[in-house]
Amino acid sequence: MNKIVKNASEAIIGIKDGMTLMFGGFGLCGIPENVIRELAKIKVKNLTCISNNAGVDDFGLGILLRDKQIKKMIASYVGENKEFERQFLSGELEVDLVPQGTLAERIRAGGAGIPAFYVPAGYGTEVGEGKEAREFNGKMHLLEYGLTADFAIVKAKYGDAMGNLIYNNTANNYNNMMAMAGKITIAEVEEIVPVGELNPNQIHTPGIFVQRIFQGVDYEKRIEFETTM
Amino acid sequence: MALDKNGIAKRIAQELKDGYYVNLGIGIPTLIANYIPEGMDVILQSENGLLGIGPFPEKGKADPDLINAGKQTVTAIPGASFFDSATSFAMIRGGHIDLTVLGAFEVSETGDIASWKIPGKLVKGMGGAMDLVASAKNIIVATTHTDRKGNSKLKKSCTLPLTGLACVKKIVTDLAVVEVTDKGFKLLERAPGVSIEEIKNATEGTLIIEGEIPEMKL
Predict the structure, then answer these.
(1) Which class would CATH give A8-215?
(2) SS3 call for A159
(3) Angle between the A100-112 and B85-93 helix axes, to the nearest 10 degrees?
(4) Average pLDDT, chain B
(5) N or C: which end of chain B has fewer CB within 10 A?
(6) How high is the pLDDT of residue A79?
(7) Which homologous superfamily is B5-208 in?
């Protein structure tokens, strides 16, 4: 089995205007830099993007925002992006803000074949408006729906031709769940290793969830806030 | 005198107990890590997927793949673990976190909290705050008692969009330690040199004052 494609350009074949895409990463940590760059190049438009954050003004998903390629953003926190705030306040950009744990679980559920589930987060707030609420164990919960995407795009440290993935440190974040939730999942990795080299006990994402994999180039791995002692 | 941010953090650190798993929000709560009593085992959780946050890295050793929920570079302590966001919120939603400390724009006397949105002005999103306040067993709010204009943040009811309902148990401000009870804010302690009168004037919600109110010991 060989799921390796040459590069980002080959990996994104089939991504079209109006599609729903998931992007792994938390802030700028663990984002698929190569695919984002490539999507900016082909200028695909009217995208619905599901990602915890929206990048910064000139990096990550911020690039696609700046070029008006995103129609709707589903995210939990978008504080580090002025252009996002401008487009949102002016009504150019549709935004669905979802509590972070609910977003993570909606993606996990979507990939795991669970159409809907109840969580307490957001009950009694504007997040709960219009949603079915139900009491369990004396506490109110909201009905939330699983999320899937036409393409899920994830980034890992190591991968192999079978699509097995291992993430590094806190760069796992949303990648692991999103890999499960894409009709087609593209994994870009820092290093492709020969099949059999990854320890099966330590694989985070089993290869079944990944359809295309390639070794990325020129990782900038930008740090948002460098704090040191 | 009113406490500074570090003073608030120092007082909240007294609420920690040996063996606690704790989630610290962005801002003042993050400073609490600096005041964990020596010899006390407290494990800090970061909702982006780290259990066992260590100190900031040494200069030149920052790892872009190792950050906290505030997107600052950090380290991991020996015995730390990394995991995905769904697992992280299983820890939070499942009630496995012993204490959550976060900031707020407003807290109501019934324990409602508003911390994520100022309509028309600020749209950053709720991040993990709604999940945290909906499920944490013990929530302490770390905040200044009033905003920059002098308006009380301890209100009868919140005016800003809520993060969660009836969830805050305790508030530590620059002026006081206050417990949220079913009758309103109960004054527990005053900041050193701060009078009850000052606290009363800075509190919009019902303030219950019973007996002698001791000064915080810092």
Answers:
(1) alpha beta
(2) strand
(3) 120
(4) 95
(5) N
(6) 80
(7) Glutaconate Coenzyme A-transferase (3.40.1080.10)
Among the residue ranges A82-86, A160-164, A214-218, B170-174, the one predicted with the least confidence is: A82-86
Which residues of chain B register pLDDT less than 70? none
Domain ranges of chain A: 8-215
Average model confidence (pLDDT) across chain A: 96
Nearest CA in chain B to A176: B84
- CA atoms of B179 and B156, how far apart (whole Å): 14
- The three-state secondary structure class of B109 is coil
pLDDT at residue A151 in the model: 98
Distance to chain A for B84, nearest Cα, Å: 4
Kindly provide the residue ranges of all beta strands, DSSP E only, lying in B25-74, ordered along the sequence. Answer: 43-46, 50-53
Surface of B (22-81) touching A: CB under 8 A? 46-50, 55-67, 69-74, 76
Domain map (residue ranges) of chain B: 5-208
Position with higher pLDDT, B123 vs A60? A60
Pick from A169, A177, A180, A209 the residue to mutate for testing the B interface (most B CBs within 10 Å): A169
Mean pLDDT of A178-182: 98
Q: What is the mean predicted confidence (pLDDT) over A205-229?
A: 96
The predicted pLDDT at position B1 comes to 85
Can you say whether the dihedral through the CA atoms of A93, A98, A99, A100 is positive or negative? negative
Instruction: Please name the residues in contact with A44: beta carbons below 8 A apart, sequence gap of 6 or more.
Output: A15, A16, A17, A19, A69
Question: Length of chain A, please?
Answer: 229
Which whole-number Å values give the CA distances from A195 to A161, A213, B205, in the listed order?
6, 13, 64
Angle at alpha carbon of residue B95, lines to A165 and A29, rounded to 5°? 35
Looking at chain A, the whole-number percentage of residues with pLDDT higher than 70 is 100
Q: Would you call B47 a catalytic residue per the annotation?
A: yes
> How far apart are the C-alpha atoms of B121 and B107, rounded to whole Å?
19
Look at residue B115 in the predicted model and tell me its pLDDT: 94
Rounded mean pLDDT of A131-142?
97
Which stretch of DSSP H or E encloses residue B11? helix B5-13
Sign, CA torsion A165/A212/B64/B55: negative
